[in-house]
Structure formats: structure tokens, C-alpha cells
């Protein structure tokens, strides 16, 4: 019996682009990295996602999306418009969607959230609970992360983004625009209406860490998401994270199948930063304290991950989330030295020494 959902909602956008085929390989690569299956039919490429379908017609210069519900259609519009916007940038593409949800100005991926509780997990890790409504979409699409929108000293009372006719967010002018930083949903309870986020309270001038240090019940932030690609399922994993990747690594250990094996390294400032993790897997967890070496300067995390021998049989995945230099070293090792594919590894820079707001734009 076929349980495929009925794709009742549909929309399309004319693509006023001279050279669509020149961008199509990269657009297609990007969409497939969000777990879409692609198939070619003459001048048309179809993409099948778990939550809907999309197509690019290179002869008629039109892209189409169909989904079972509003969240799915909004997600497809955002994925397609972002891909076109990024890869056909030089043509400054004008995208205007028609059909279902055309004229909608509510941004499906945005929620205003209210701080409901704050507690210190360790001396430098602060768990903040945010209450909000209608959070079901944050459990969909395989992304674990959110873009958090904060008020700042310069913009204490920000305006939130809305939805444009091109399917992408419309931001208020700079004097009312909130400042964005990327964080991980450590825990989500759709029925109870809350998410937990673990903030590393790091030294120096900042937006996210500074906000977390003075967070108190009743304060408001915006969140957009979910952000990020699904992590590939495998029988064996090697993982590495510093404190910023720890919330995502902990979520993976709590949710991967019990039979999963491998090893996970977590770099923390010192032993006081270790925290309990309900590891549901057989992945071995090893803590690597820096013991006085500043964050982003210690090479032991990257070295430990590189020293792990890749299994010769079975499915395997390498997952790494830490400072940009360490992420580059590990990525070069996996993709270059070991010639592993993009579908077998993910080595992501979660922050960069001396740079503010990495990945938040
Ligand atoms: C997908 C993703 C998920 C993430 N999830 C989390 C999460 O759940 N929890 C979390 O705490 N972080 C997380 N991060 C990292 C976080 O986005 C960055 O650390 C971000 O820079 C924090 O913003 P900020 O305003 O505090 O500092 P910024 O204003 O961005 O930076 C100010 C200064 O602080 C430095 N800095 C930034 N991060 C650190 C650090 N970790 N240690 C030391 N110095 C630092 C910068 O280099 C810069 O010099 C995630 C990042 C990504 C990409």
C-alpha cells in the first residue's frame, strides 16, 4: 500500500535568468544535500523530498513546488529560492511565486520565543529554556539548529523578519534589525511548547554569549529554523566537537540507534565542563580537557579524530563541529587524505577565532 502523502499545495515561479543550465549542477547538488532524489526528464529536473516535490524546467524557465502542507511548501519555496539566489547571484534573479501561499507574509520558519528558565549546567555552559507556540516544524526536515535573533544595546527593540514574494525573509532596516547567531536545539518538546539551548559563555565581546549571561525569564528572542542538513545514518561514527558542537553531539548520542558503534571526542576547557549525556548508543565518549590552553588553540581534538582508523566494512560517517582551523584540518584529512565522499563526512566550522557571527548571515 502506498502511504505517500497527497501533495495538495502547489506553486511556481518564473525564472528570469538567461543562463539557468549553467547554474543547474550546483543548484541540484545543493538540493540533493537536503536529501532530495534527483531525476532528469529531458529539459526538466525533478527533486523528490520526504515532504514534497520540486522541479526545474529549463525550457520554460520555471520552477515548481508541491507539498502536503503549508510548512512543507514554505520549506520548498525557501530551499529553491535560496539555491537560485546563491548560484545565479550574478544575474540578480527576480523570483515571484504564484499559486498556494502567494501573498503570505508570515515567515513559516520564524517564532518569537520567551525565556522560561535559566540554569548553569557547568561553570561555562548555560541552559536556557524558551517557550513558544506551534513548534512542530522544528522537529521536521532533519535540521538540528536554529538562527537565533537577539536584541542588542544598539537595537534593544528589534522588528522581526517577514516573508517576501520570492519566498525568502524580508528584514527590517538596520536600526531595527536583530542580530543573528547560530545555535543548536538541545531539546525540543512540541507538546509542552519549549526548546532548550545550551549557550557556551565564552570571554570577550559578543552578542549570543553576552545575551545568555544576563538572560532572565520573560525576555524575548526570535528563532528561525530548523537550519542544517540531516546527518546520514550509519553503523559506525567517528565524532569530534568542542563546547559549541557539544549540544549537537549530545543530541546525536541520545537519538542514534542503540546498535550504533564508534567513538566521540569532546574538547572542553577542563574537567568541570564535563556534563552528563544520556548516551543511547554503543559509541564510546571521550572527554579531552584543554587544561589552560585557550579555546581554538588546542590541536588535540583534530589529532584524536584523525588518528581513528576508518572501518573497512559497513557504513561509516565522520561528524565534526568545532573551531574553523580544527574543522579545516579534519575536513582535509577526511576528504583529501582518505578520499572520503561528502555523503560520508561533515566537518563544520562552528566559530572562528577573532571573527564574530560565523555562519549567522
Ligand atoms: C550549526 C551551528 C550550531 C551551533 N550551536 C551552538 C550551541 O548550541 N551552543 C553554543 O554555545 N554555540 C553554538 N554554535 C557556535 C556559535 O554560533 C558561535 O560560537 C558564535 O560565534 C557565538 O556568538 P557570540 O555572539 O557569542 O560571539 P561572536 O560575536 O560571534 O564572537 C565574538 C568573539 O568571540 C569569539 N568566540 C566565538 N565563539 C567562541 C567560543 N566558542 N570560544 C571562544 N571564543 C569564541 C569569536 O572568535 C570572536 O572573537 C553553533 C554554531 C553553528 C554554526
Could you walk me through the main structural features you see in this protein, from its secondary elements to its overall organization?
By secondary structure, the chain is an alpha+beta fold. The chain has three domains: 9-99, Alpha-D-phosphohexomutase, C-terminal domain (TATA-Binding Protein), CATH 3.30.310; 110-227, Elongation Factor Tu (Ef-tu), domain 3 (Beta Barrel); 236-351, 3-Layer(aba) Sandwich (Rossmann fold). It is built from six helices and 20 strands. The strands form four sheets. The chain has a seven-stranded antiparallel β-sheet. It has a six-stranded antiparallel β-sheet with strand order 2-3-4-5-1-6, with helices on one face. Strands 18-17-16-19-20 form a five-stranded parallel β-sheet, with helices on both faces. It is globular and about 60 Å long.
Brief synopsis:
The protein is α+β, with helices and mostly antiparallel strands. Helices cover 19% and strands 35% of the residues.
**What CATH first level of the largest domain would be assigned?**
Mainly Beta
The major beta sheet can be summarized as: 7 strands, antiparallel
- Total helix count? 6
Ranges where pLDDT stays below 50 over 5 or more residues in a row are: none
Order of helices and strands: EHEEEEHEEEEEEEEEHEEHEEHEHE
Mean pLDDT: 95
What structural category arises from helix and sheet content? alpha+beta
Q: Strand percentage, roughly?
A: 25-35%
Amino acid at each position: 500500500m502506498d502511504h505517500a502523502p497527497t501533495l495538495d499545495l502547489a506553486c511556481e515561479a518564473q525564472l528570469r535568468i538567461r543562463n539557468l543550465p549553467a547554474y543547474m549542477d550546483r543548484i541540484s547538488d545543493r538540493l540533493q544535500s537536503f536529501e532530495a532524489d534527483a531525476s532528469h526528464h529531458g529539459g526538466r529536473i525533478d527533486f523528490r523530498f520526504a515532504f514534497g516535490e520540486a522541479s526545474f524546467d529549463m525550457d520554460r524557465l520555471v520552477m515548481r513546488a508541491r507539498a502536503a502542507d503549508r510548512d512543507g511548501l514554505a520549506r520548498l519555496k525557501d530551499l529553491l529560492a535560496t539555491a537560485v539566489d546563491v548560484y545565479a547571484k550574478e544575474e540578480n534573479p527576480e523570483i515571484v511565486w504564484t499559486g498556494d501561499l502567494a501573498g503570505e507574509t508570515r515567515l513559516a520558519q520564524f517564532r518569537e520565543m520567551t525565556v522560561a528558565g535559566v540554569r548553569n549546567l557547568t561553570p561555562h555552559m548555560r541552559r536556557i529554556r524558551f517557550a513558544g507556540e506551534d513548534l512542530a516544524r522544528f522537529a521536521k526536515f532533519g535540521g538540528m539548529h536554529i538562527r537565533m535573533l537577539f536584541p542588542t544595546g544598539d537595537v534593544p527593540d528589534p522588528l522581526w523578519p517577514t516573508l517576501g514574494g520570492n519566498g525568502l525573509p524580508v528584514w527590517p532596516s538596520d536600526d531595527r534589525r536583530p542580530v543573528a547567531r547560530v545555535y543548536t536545539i538541545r531539546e525540543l518538546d512540541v507538546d509542552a511548547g519549549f526548546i532548550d539551548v545550551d549557550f557556551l559563555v565564552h570571554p570577550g565581546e559578543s552578542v549570543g554569549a553576552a545575551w545568555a549571561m544576563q538572560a532572565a525569564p520573560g525576555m524575548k528572542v526570535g528563532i528561525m529554523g530548523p537550519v542544517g542538513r540531516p546527518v546520514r545514518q550509519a553503523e559506525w561514527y567517528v565524532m569530534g566537537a568542542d563546547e559549541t558542537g557539544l549540544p549537537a553531539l549530545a543530541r546525536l548520542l541520545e537519538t542514534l540507534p542503540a546498535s550504533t558503534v564508534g567513538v566521540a571526542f569532546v574538547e572542553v576547557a577542563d574537567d568541570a565542563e564535563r556534563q552528563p549525556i544520556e548516551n543511547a548508543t554503543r559509541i564510546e565518549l571521550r572527554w579531552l580537557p584543554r587544561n589552560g590552553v585557550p579555546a581554538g588553540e588546542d590541536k588535540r581534538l583534530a589529532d584524536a579524530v584523525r588518528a581513528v582508523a576508518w572501518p573497512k566494512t559497513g557504513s561509516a560517517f565522520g561528524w565534526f563541529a568545532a573551531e574553523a582551523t580544527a574543522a579545516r584540518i579534519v575536513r582535509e584529512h577526511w576528504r583529501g587524505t582518505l578520499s572520503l565522499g561528502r555523503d560520508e563526512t561533515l566537518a563544520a566550522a562552528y566559530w572562528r577565532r577573532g571573527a564574530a557571527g560565523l555562519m549567522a548571515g
